[in-house]
């Protein structure tokens, strides 16, 4: 069914949800267009899993909830639905039209950058996330070299960036007030083979 997706066709949100329910691949929705998410590599998935474990451990006794890449985020300003690699919600999730797979209130979003998605994740996708009032921090993790960047919202227009490039260091995630060790994020990844 997914092979029938046409870039010339404008789909309704209802059609998007119907097509995605039949698809084995994740589909994102943007301004009436449906895009297949590229399959992730082993390294991408390992880093995403490492982040979920580290965040889950750091936040287990807090008011924050950590979710994985099966959780869609709805961006109402342009009626878009996107998948992050990891998301943290403060307190109780708010769901899009009672769909328990789609949230409205992400606090922190993590994206592991792939060569095919890096420009989109660092550009347009970040722009989309910024339209959400609940969204306070964006973490992007490079998979081909050691670099983690955290963008923290100071106010409506200003963001502070923190880049960490050494495995011996940690990155401070201000929205949840935890530090993640880069050695935990990149655990099991051989950077020499990239």
Give a verbal description of the structure.
- The protein is α+β, with helices and mostly antiparallel strands.
- It folds into 2 domains: 1-37, no CATH class; 41-193, tt1808, chain A (Alpha-Beta Complex), CATH 3.90.1570.
- Helix content is 23%, strand content 34%.
- The protein has helices at residues 13-22, 42-59, 118-122, 124-130, 182-185, and strands at residues 27-30, 33-36, 64-67, 72-75, 80-82, 86-90, 95-96, 99-103, 106-113, 137-142, 148-153, 159-164, 170-173, 178-181.
- The protein has a 6-stranded mixed β-sheet. Strands 5-4-8-7 form a 4-stranded mixed β-sheet, with helices on one face. Strands 1-2 form a two-stranded antiparallel sheet.
- The longest helix has 18 residues, at 42-59.
- The radius of gyration is 17 Å and the shape is globular.
- The mean pLDDT is 91.
Overall tally of structural domains = 2
CATH class of the largest domain: Alpha Beta
Which CATH architecture of the largest domain would you pick? Alpha-Beta Complex
Low-confidence stretches: none
Overall mean confidence score, pLDDT: 91
Tally of alpha and pi helices: 5
Based on Cα principal axes, name the global outline: globular
Portion of residues in beta strands equals 25-35%
What share of residues is helical?
A: 10-25%
Q: What can be said about the biggest beta sheet?
A: 6 strands, mixed
Oligomer state equals single chain
